[in-house]
Give the backbone structure.
Amino acid sequence: MRSPIFTALASLLIASFLLAGCGNKKPDFTVKVLIGATTIPSASDAPIEDSVIVISGSKIRSVGPRKDVPVPQASDRTDLTGEWVVPAPGSRIEAGETANLLILKHAPNGLAPATPGDMGAQLVAGEWKMPGK
């Protein structure tokens, strides 16, 4: 016959192993935050200087001036100060939209890069794509 103390210790040991495994799980998506760029949400919108764009999974969660958009603590932050963010063709930069964005090194011509060399990177459905890949 087992003692109640042995049973309690065995139960605690099993529970600690189970809980330890739960803490190592990674989230299903990463929250990305683009900070400091000048963002043009659409062709009809004025540029947003010193912007913050919060992307959760493949969707834009929020966009606006840095002073108005809180930056989540648990996020992958990218400083884009001095760069421009515009929507990919057929897209808009607004909450709820798919994160299809172009990162440009210089001010765009409308929503397009002024020159082919201005393209820095892009996000397609929230995932980074580097030029030429």
